[in-house]
């Protein structure tokens, strides 16, 4: 035997699973196909700029993050709690009135927060805000679109703010996601101030990996997993490995490569990273474009931000890093550099011709589609000793991936204990 358990995939789910198994006293080997740990949470350093592989943020209000990540060590740099909303020629900053009091009056009088919408939002989200179990243990669920319609949340807060913001968060503008899942996401945004680690998002999975006794075997793809008489055999690029059990934590698009399960549906997005000239000043807020009549952006960019305003460590001193997100499910999701640059000129009201593209990440499988239904499905056994996990078995998020890993580790430890 090479180990008690082989964990395949060193994303957040695989790493959390390995940590749990080691804490249970088991010998664990983690194999990872890529050249570093992190899976969908990776950071490229380009000319001194930190470009995450797809714009994302870490929310310290996620219970799993608070429990298993040393957030203080990551030195989070906070985004503003709010957003800048562009509607046609008008730009409005909506911000948390207590955290950003200087924007309070403008926020209240913006016209983007009609009282009937606010009351409907309070009814729709209130129970989950008070207790997450209102969503996780709900016996019924429906699509986000149907649920917001039924709640009467149909005005500008919905059309110009929520729908546009959520499309970027879900990598999907259809409104078909689970309403309960979105309630949980909004709860986290309401309770925490998301931010970016000083060294980039990849610092989070690296912290998990650093706590493992046995280093992750990088550049080692698993090709086959099968039950054998006394456990499992995993064929890898580095040879065959034997263990008493295996955890398959490979991300939704690869599940079918190694197991009889069908690959879950996913949604994708792209992130453009620019070195911006001039001084695009939006403060530490995400800028949402809701300029299309009826909601959504007038161009390919759904949201953008001057990342270095919120996270100075993401750019060399005195320089500006801008991200722009397009959605692959939209007709213009693959818009080229020229169109994105033109769109950003409109959104920031400044010339962007000299902005330099640092990176363009096309992330086809950003998130598993979270259709209405039970929020927590749990890991699934596909063999006597083979367990499949990942964010697609929980909620499509950092929180979901960590919890999925924890549950898988606990289930395998229990089975091996007899
Ligand atoms: C652009 C983007 C933005 C996001 N924004 C947010 C956000 O703001 N907030 C939030 O909460 N979540 C966000 N997420 C989601 C979050 O990052 C994921 O839910 C989470 O990282 C998934 O972790 P995972 O371990 O389940 O899967 P993955 O990260 O996909 O890990 C799977 C790992 O398995 C490896 N692997 C695959 N096949 C094999 C094989 N055959 N052998 C060995 N290894 C293999 C892969 O290389 C990978 O490292 C975002 C994701 C992306 C991509």
UniProtKB/TrEMBL annotation:
Record's superkingdom?
A: Bacteria
The source organism is Agrococcus sediminis
MF-aspect GO terms? oxidoreductase activity
Q: Name one Pfam family in it.
A: Amino_oxidase
Amine oxidase domain sequence ranges: 12-412
Q: What is the protein name given in its UniProt record? A: FAD-dependent oxidoreductase
Query: Which InterPro entries did the record assign?
Result: Amino_oxidase, FAD/NAD-bd_sf
């Amino acid at each position: 035997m090479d180990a008690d358990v082989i964990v395949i995939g060193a994303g957040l789910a695989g790493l959390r699973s390995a940590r749990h198994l080691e804490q249970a006293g088991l010998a664990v080997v983690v194999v990872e196909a890529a050249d570093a740990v992190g899976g969908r949470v990776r950071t490229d350093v380009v000319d001194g700029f930190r470009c995450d592989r797809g714009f994302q943020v870490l929310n310290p209000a996620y219970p799993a993050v608070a429990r298993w990540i040393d957030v203080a060590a990551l030195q989070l740099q906070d985004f503003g709690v709010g957003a800048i909303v562009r509607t046609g020629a008008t730009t409005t900053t909506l911000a948390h009135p207590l955290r950003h009091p200087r924007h309070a009056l403008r926020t209240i009088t913006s016209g983007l927060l009609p009282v009937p919408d606010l009351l409907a939002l309070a009814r729709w989200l209130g129970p989950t805000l008070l207790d997450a179990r209102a969503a996780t243990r709900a016996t019924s669920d429906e699509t986000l679109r149907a649920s917001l319609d039924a709640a009467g949340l149909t005005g500008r807060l919905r059309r110009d703010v929520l729908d546009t913001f959520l499309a970027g968060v879900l990598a999907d503008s259809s409104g078909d996601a689970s309403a309960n899942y979105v309630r949980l996401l909004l709860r986290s945004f309401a309770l925490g101030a998301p931010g970016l680690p000083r060294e980039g998002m990849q610092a989070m999975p690296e912290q998990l990996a650093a706590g493992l006794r046995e280093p992750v075997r990088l550049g080692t793809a698993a090709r086959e997993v099968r039950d054998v008489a006394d456990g499992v055999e995993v064929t890898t690029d580095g040879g065959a490995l034997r263990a008493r059990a295996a955890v398959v934590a490979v991300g939704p698009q690869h599940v079918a490569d190694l197991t009889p399960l069908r690959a879950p549906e996913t949604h994708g997005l792209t992130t453009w990273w620019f070195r911006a000239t001039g001084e695009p000043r939006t403060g530490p807020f995400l800028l949402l474009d809701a300029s299309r009549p009826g909601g959504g952006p007038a161009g390919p960019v759904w949201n953008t931000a001057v990342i270095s305003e919120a996270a100075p460590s993401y750019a060399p001193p005195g320089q500006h890093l801008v991200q722009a997100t397009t959605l692959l499910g939209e007709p213009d999701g693959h818009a080229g550099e020229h169109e994105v640059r033109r769109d950003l000129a409109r959104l920031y009201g400044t010339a962007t011709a000299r902005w330099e593209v640092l990176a363009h990440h096309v992330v086809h499988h950003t998130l598993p589609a979270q259709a209405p239904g039970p929020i927590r499905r749990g890991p699934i056994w596909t063999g006597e000793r083979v367990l499949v996990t990942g964010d697609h078995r929980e909620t499509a998020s950092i929180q979901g991936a960590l919890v999925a890993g924890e549950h898988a580790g606990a289930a395998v430890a229990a089975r091996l204990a007899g």
